[in-house]
TrEMBL record:
Cited PANTHER family: FMN REDUCTASE (NADPH)
Protein name (database record): FMN reductase
Ranges where the NADPH-dependent FMN reductase-like domain occurs: 28-175
Keywords from the named record: Flavoprotein, FMN, Oxidoreductase
Keyword Transmembrane applies: no
Listed Pfam families: FMN_red (PF03358)
Region (Disordered): 1-22
Family annotation (SUPFAM superfamilies): Flavoproteins
Coiled coil: none
Lineage: Bacteria, Bacillati, Actinomycetota, Actinomycetes, Micrococcales
This protein's record includes keyword Amino-acid biosynthesis: no
Length: 216
C-alpha cells in the first residue's frame, strides 16, 4: 500500500495503482465471425488489438495475437458435427481459444444475432475450457439498434461457458466507419474503457503464469 503524506486524505492520494509484473506474455485469441476476410468487424478487432497491445506494452507485456476467421476454416469446421470431425487447422484454432489468456469475440449482426459459423465454432469449444477466461465482446451492425446483440445474444452465450465477460462491450455501426476503418472518437473511447477495465485481470494472469513458470 502506498504511504500518504501526513494530513493527506484518501481522495487526495488518488485511485489505487495496479502493480505491474516484470515483463511477460499474454496469449490473445481474436475470433472473427464475419464471412469476409476484410470487413468492418475485422477493422474493429484490429483497433481493439492495437489499443490492447499499446496499453500492455506500457506494462512490459508482449501480446501474442492469433486471429481466427471462422469462415476461413471451411469444410474442416462447417462440415463437422462433433469435435472429432474437425480438420487439424480447425482443431488448432479451437485449442488457441481454449488456452488463451483473453478472447476477443467479434461478429457482425445477422438477422438479429451472431452469424451461424460464429455459433458453430463455439458449439465445438469444450464446455469448461473458458471458465473464468476474460472475453471482450464486439459487434458491428447497420444501426444502433443492433447493439442489443451484445447483451441479448453474445453475453448469454459466454455465460454458458462461465467465462468472465468484460463489462464494457464494443459495438460499432456503419456510420462509425470509413470503409472498414473505425474512425468515430466514441468507438475509440469505448475500446479504451473496455481495455482499462480488463487490464488488472490480465496483469494478474501474467503474474500467475510467471509464478508457475519453471526457473533455471
Amino acid at each position: 500500500m502506498t504511504a500518504m503524506e501526513p494530513g493527506a486524505s484518501s481522495a487526495e492520494a488518488g485511485p489505487p495503482t495496479v502493480s505491474r509484473p516484470e515483463g511477460g506474455r499474454l496469449a490473445v485469441a481474436v475470433v472473427n465471425g464475419s464471412p469476409s476476410r476484410r470487413s468492418k468487424t475485422v477493422g474493429l478487432t484490429e483497433l481493439i488489438s492495437e489499443v490492447l497491445a499499446d496499453v500492455l506494452a506500457e506494462d512490459g507485456i508482449e501480446v501474442e495475437m492469433s486471429r481466427i476467421d471462422v469462415y476461413g476454416l471451411g469444410p474442416g469446421l462447417n462440415g463437422a458435427r462433433e469435435r472429432e470431425d474437425v480438420s487439424e487447422a480447425a482443431e488448432a484454432a479451437l485449442r488457441r481459444v481454449e488456452t488463451a489468456d483473453l478472447v476477443i469475440a467479434a461478429t457482425p449482426v445477422f438477422r438479429g444475432s451472431y452469424t451461424g459459423m460464429f455459433k458453430h465454432f463455439f458449439d465445438l469449444i469444450d464446455q469448461y475450457a473458458l471458465a473464468n477466461t476474460p472475453v471482450l465482446l464486439a459487434a458491428t451492425g447497420g444501426g444502433e439498434h443492433h447493439a442489443l446483440v451484445l447483451e441479448h445474444a453474445m453475453r448469454p452465450l459466454f455465460g454458458f461457458f462461465q467465462a468472465m465477460t468484460v463489462p464494457v462491450a464494443v459495438f460499432a455501426s456503419s456510420a462509425d466507419f470509413d470503409g472498414t476503418v473505425p474512425l468515430t472518437p466514441r468507438i475509440h473511447g469505448r475500446v479504451e474503457t473496455a481495455i482499462t477495465d480488463v487490464r488488472p485481470i490480465l496483469l494478474g494472469r501474467v503474474r500467475r503464469s510467471a509464478s508457475t513458470r519453471p526457473r533455471g
